[in-house]
Every structure is written in C-alpha cells, then in structure tokens.
Amino acid sequence: MELDDAGLDPERIAAAIHDQLGETIGPVPVRDIARRLDITKIREAPLNKVEGILVTTPERPEGVIAVNGNSPSRRQRCTLAHEPGHLLMAHQRMVRQDGSGVPAPT
C-alpha cells in the first residue's frame, strides 16, 4: 500500500510505512522514517514544557522536528517517532514558545 492511499487511518498509515521499510532487524530507523516523510531537519534543543515540536509551512509539504535535548535519549527517540504523526494525521496546531496552545489561522 502506498502512503498516499492510507488516508487518515493510523493503522493504514503504519501498514504503508512498514510496507515501504520492508523487514527491519534491530531498532526501528526513526530518523530515516522521518526523512522519508519529508522531515527536512531534526534538531535537539532545550525545550520547556514539551518533549518535541513539529514545525511546518501552512501548505505542510515538509517539516522540521525539534526534540527536547534535556530528555534522555530513549525519550528523544520516542518523541522523534511520534512527531511525524502530526504531519500525517493533519491535526497539528500552533503553539506559543511557552508551550500553550493558540488556534491555527484558518
């Protein structure tokens, strides 16, 4: 199944990603998956009140992920696996630098 055919169904999205990756041995290559999903940069930064953020343009063709550099490496890895889901599921929103939410412009 192609990722474009998966719609917004999380199980279909996961199946499409697994199909594209093929069989993997060892840790899931979360950085490679993020890059294949048009995440152009992955940064570590000291973030307050959040573990990670996804930044995209309004058109959302690509994104940048920042993970909390103060968190343990396993937590950062989990966050890096999580953030592309916001791009794929189209349910991101704008947030202030302090972590509080603001409605995205319509």
UniProtKB/TrEMBL annotation:
InterPro entries linked: IrrE_HExxH (IPR010359)
Upper classification of the organism: Bacteria, Pseudomonadati, Pseudomonadota, Alphaproteobacteria, Minwuiales
Name by which UniProt lists this protein: IrrE N-terminal-like domain-containing protein
Domain of life according to the entry: Bacteria
Organism: Minwuia thermotolerans
IrrE N-terminal-like domain: residues covered: 41-94
